[in-house]
Amino acid sequence: MVHNHIEGSYNWFLVCLSFIIALFASYMALNLARRVLLSEGWKKRGWLFGGAVVMGVGIWSMHFIAMLAVHLPTGVTYDFVTVLVSIGVSIVGAFIGFGIASHSGRGTLRLIIGGTIMGLAITGMHYIGMYALTGLTVTYNPYIITLSILIAVLASIVALLFSFRRNNHYWLSGFIMGIAVTGMHYTGMSAANMSMPVHMLSRASDAQAMDFIEMAVYVAFGTIVIMAVSLISSMNVDKKLSEQLSLKGSILESAIDCLIMFDHKGTIFEFNPAAETLFGYSRSEVIGSSIKELLMPELPRDMSSMNGMLCSGNKTVLGTRVETMMPRGNQSTFPAEIIVTRIRSEKFPVFTMYLRDLTERRLVEEALRESEERYRKLIDFSPEPILVHYQGVISFVNESALRIFGAEQDGLIGRGFLELVHSECLASAAQWLEHIQTGTAKGDPIELKMHKLNGTTIDIEAKSILVHFSGQALIQTIAWDITDKKRYENTIRQLAYYDMLTGLPNRNWFNLSYPELLQVVSARGQQAALMFLDLDRFKLINDTMGHLMGDRLLQHFAAVLSETIGDNRMVARLSGDEFVAIIQDCNRSQLELMAETLIRRVAEPIQVEGQDIFITTSVGIALYPKDGETLEMLLQNADTAMYAAKEKGKNQFQFFEWAMNHCQARRMNIEQALPAAIEEQAFHLVYQPMFNAEQGHLIGVETLVRWEHPVLGTISPCEFIPIAESTGHIIVLGEWILHKACKQMKEWHDAGLPRIPVAVNFSVIQFNQDLIVDMIIGALEQTGLDAKYLIAEMTESMAMQHNEAIIGKLHALKRLGVSISIDDFGTGYSSLCYLRRFPIDTLKIDKSFVQDVSGAGEDTAIVEAIIAMARSLKLRVLAEGVETEQQSERLCQLGCTDMQGYWHSRPLSIPQFEQTYLSAAYLARGEAAAGSAAG
Questions:
Q1: Kindly report the CA angle at 90 between 89 and 95, in degrees rounded to 5?
Q2: Fewer beta carbons within 10 Å, N or C terminal of the chain?
Q3: DSSP E strands: which ranges in 838-890?
Q4: Taking Cα atoms as reference points, which of 238, 235, 302 lies closest to residue 266?
Q5: The GGDEF domain covers which part of the protein (predicted)?
């Protein structure tokens, strides 16, 4: 049979893609396998297997893409079984190599062995994968094959050395391993001599070529998805562990008791200040030392067996109080009582030792054993509070005990011991004393609530022993007052799980409690709801009225929320002005009623320092399990629903709908595109004429901004202006709008347009800037527009804030000649006394009242009231949103002749405006009207 030699060429895009896949897979696999050093048991095996799978699949993906990069004749295929064998070889080799390298007794030799196995597995996968090619005859150059094996083995050893012997060098070890994999592959490919039978080659030439690039991209995408899932999983594990260790560390630092923490090998990694004082060692001297060698040499069992019992959860070690001798840093020893508990940890078992110095107590006990007489004297003068009782009646107390219980000398003698015990602890105290009397007690202390003689309740930790005195069996009780300790523990718990400002549970409490609640609701087959709430315009109030006012509003809102939701529901403050409420076993109508009641109560005016403050809330509601079965999903969806409520005008509630995710994604896209749009000046302005309807002539124009995005399409100002305000971009955008509007009006004046003003909208964010007045002055000077032809429009909500700084800036503009107008009037809560303080020229009636003004309804009465109020304040009034002839005529009848809206003119682009109002015919009509008026 005749063969033709095949000379393959490479697609360099696929070559680069294969190299990137190799680097990414190597880095991810070594990062995951490195976690094996920090894990035990099934978690260790899980990380080990995950690293091996990521490495094996990544190497195979690189090999497959690299093979696709070679332009081979059509008709060459792969044997599927052989491909699976090659993948299995790479996974098994990586698993064995990582396992040997991460062994607890690892050394350089183990890393070399593990790297050698991994290198052989890589080359094995390559050449088995080459063997999977059907339709080709492949021969190899043995020298180059040997070179490829050496490259893979040496680079694998170096990568493992950097990964397992040098912390935080995953990127370097991954880079080296990625080079090893790709280097081995292309070296191996150079060793291959491929040929194909002539008759197959001729048939292959007629076949249709496969789209190798598309196949390679699919393989690369699948591999990257697998590795991305692994990366996200490892990051989540790291985050949870970091939060847990941070919380435990803060508690250890502030604890009064002597606390020592050590790992499963007995290595100390935490030593709190109380322990430093007791042992005479500094924390830096102890950290990293063996607890057995440094602090516990007197323990009867060796540390290795003790570690085994601790890790296995042996009840004879864990949770058992042990008395032993402990060494101090000055070479002396002291008796101590210790108890060891195990704490759950993501990486390895962590143990906490609680320790108490028994020196003084031992002195008392030794003295009691030496002599009964000496026993009495020592007890009497002991600093420990001691009571002796016989058959339940107190027969002796020392001075310390008298002080604790607030009694005079002999004030406790003859009283029953249990008479001093609080009723909730009475049963456990009686059983405890019975065990002491019968000698079956374990000697462990007990915590009790007891009464002082004045009725005050205190917390006591008591330990009792059975002693013999004058032939009688007495119970001697040492009682320590731990009231302050308990109060301190409760304070720590309060700080950790409750918000100090509102008194509500905080995010920590919510994260701990809500998953448990979901389990209960799920077990009962019930429905639960999560309400996500925040205060509308809270940041604005905080910035303009001060943080003290903001804190009072938060406290008021928390009180209203708790009252409305009810005591049997859960309310928490997550952060800032964000709150959540959890409602069990409820239906949609109940939730609607609850949300409506809450919104109505929050909107009621709040009396603070003699002035009425108005605040509203937006509420998002997600239902369990319909809208999510995990805490994270419910929170996210309720938050999305809350933003939907804000976008619809705030001060309302919305149930979550899956379609809202699209709206949320659009909002994020707009927020990301906004800075570039401002930088590139991608916006344009349109101008809506304002008319005097009776005389029919132009009295001004309002500037409106528009945004056409090449991908997102037309973006309404209602979408991007709130985002610009929340992100602070409104400052730059507003300045650009002002300059463009002033410049355009100056050009129109110079072109012959009647001297009319241009209105520009300003945000409260802009007016909170100290240099806003200077910025406006600069814009007028640069464009040459006279100040009397500029109208600064502000919203009614800005006037409602009653901010002295804003009022001062408006007066400064008024002195320059700039006119002031209030936009959307009637939708807020402005009172007459507030408006009188502002230098206002014009009130613009909101279009929502104009729509039904042609009838005799409530809107007509509101418009009449606004017109009457404007006249009393000697203000002009202009109606917005006039869309029909009936509306225009009715407004004129009511006394409002200035108006704007689609009935008179839509917003016009610059060419449209000039074509209409700078035409010779229009200018001639204007001159004729002016002449007629003059005549």
A1: 100
A2: C
A3: 842-845, 876-879
A4: 302
A5: 526-658
pLDDT (tens digit, 9 = 90+) per residue, 77-89?
667 677 677 777 7
Q: Can you name the residues that pair with 321 across neighbouring β-strands? A: 339
Q: Are strands 842-845 and 578-584 parallel, antiparallel or unpaired?
A: unpaired
| Pairing between β-strand 697-709 and β-strand 713-715 as defined by DSSP bridges | antiparallel
Question: Most confidently modeled of 212-221, 271-280, 311-320?
Answer: 271-280
What span, in angstroms and rounded, lies between the C-alpha atoms of 163 and 167?
7
- Count other C-beta atoms under 10 Å from residue 772's C-beta: 23
Q: Which residue shows structure tokens 């997550």?
A: 574
Asked if 433 and 464 count as a contact pair (C-beta separation under 8 A), the reply is yes
Report which DSSP code applies to 606: E
What is the rounded distance in angstroms from the CA atom of residue 34 to the CA atom of residue 41?
15
Roughly what angle, to the nearest 10 degrees, separates helices 108-131 and 142-165? Answer: 140
Helix (H) or strand (E) holding 643: helix 631-647
The domain boundary, picked from 297, 332, 357, lies at: 357
Is the pLDDT score of 22 beyond 70?
A: no
Q: Where are the beta strands (DSSP E) in 542-670?
A: 570-575, 578-584, 606-608, 611-613, 616-624, 653-655
d(CA 702, CA 686): 8
264/287 Cα distance (integer angstroms): 15
Q: What are the tens digits of pLDDT across the range 556-605?
A: 888 888 888 876 568 888 888 889 988 888 888 888 888 899 988 888 88
Let me know whether 911 and 766 are in one domain.
yes
- pLDDT tens, position by position, 338-390: 888 877 654 567 788 888 888 877 776 665 566 556 656 666 667 777 777 77
DSSP 207: S
The identity of residue 340, as a single letter, is: V
Is 884 inside a domain boundary?
A: no
- 899: which DSSP letter? E
Of 454, 488, 522, which one is at a domain's C-terminal end? 488
* Amino acid of residue 107: G
What pLDDT digit, counting tens, does each position of 757-794 carry? 999 999 888 888 889 999 999 999 999 999 999 999 98
Looking at residue 53, its pLDDT comes to: 72
Number of domains in the chain: 5
Same domain, residue pair 644 and 694: no
Mean pLDDT of the chain: 76
> Could you tell me the CATH number of the domain that includes residue 422?
3.30.450.20
Closest CA to 793 of 703, 727, 855, 705: 703
Pairing of strands 258-263, 350-357: antiparallel
Residue among 571, 546, 548 at smallest CA distance from 501: 548
- What is the span of the domain harbouring residue 721? 674-840+905-934
Q: Can you say whether residue 392 is alpha, beta or left, with left for phi > 0 and alpha for psi between -120 and 50 degrees? A: left
Contact call for residues 818 and 787 (beta carbons, < 8 A): yes
- Give 154's pLDDT tier (boundaries 50, 70, 90): confident
User: Is the model's pTM score more than 0.85?
Assistant: no
250 assigned to some structural domain: no
Tokens of 453: 């003689």
Q: Tokens for 312?
A: 């296995």
Q: Whole-angstrom distance between the N-terminal and C-terminal Cα of the chain?
A: 114
Same domain assignment for residues 65 and 185: yes
**Which tokens sit at 2?**
């005749």
Buried/exposed 719-734: b ≥16 CB within 10 Å, e otherwise: bbbbbbbeeebbbebb
**Is 652 within the bounds of a domain?**
yes
Query: Residue 305: which residues within 8 A CB-CB, separation 6 or more?
Result: none
- Which helix H or strand E contains 457, and what residues bound it? strand 457-469
Q: Decide if pLDDT at 223 tops 60.
A: no
The reply to whether 188 and 73 lie within a common domain is yes
Cβ atoms of 787 and 746 closer than 8 Å: no
Q: Look at residues 837, 687, 821 and name the one whose alpha carbon lies nearest to residue 748.
A: 687
